[in-house]
Amino acid sequence: MGTVGNIGHNSRGWRRSSHSGGGNDCVEVAFHSGGVALRDSKHPFSGMLVTSRPGWSAMLAAVRAGGQRG
After folding, report:
1. What's the angle, vertex CA 28, arms to CA 22 and CA 33, rounded to 5?
2. Which of 10, 33, 50, 51 is in Cβ range 3.0-4.6 Å of 55 for a Cys bridge?
3. How big is the CA angle at 45 (ends 44 and 47), to the nearest 5 degrees?
């Protein structure tokens, strides 16, 4: 699991969330031709979640709406 699309673990394509606090509890995201990858900035080599661009958009919409409840 070294790369996803053209994004590798050490790639400069990873961006840290602008909403991350100062406690180093950050999520990083990388956009690539096949979709979107997310990882924990504290453990960048422990794996990543990969989704399609429509999946990314749906997740953002759910977060903005208050997430899943039930």
Report:
1. 160
2. 51
3. 90
Residues 6+ apart with CB under 8 A from 55: 35, 36
d(CA 56, CA 26): 17
Tokens of 60: 């953002």
What is the band of 44 on the pLDDT scale with cuts at 50, 70, 90?
confident
Q: Do residues 30 and 15 lie in contact, with contact meaning Cβ atoms separated by under 8 Å?
A: yes
* Bridge partners for 4 per DSSP: 7
Q: What is the pTM of this model?
A: 0.68
β-pairing, 15-16 with 7-8? unpaired
Tell me: pLDDT of 9 over 80: no
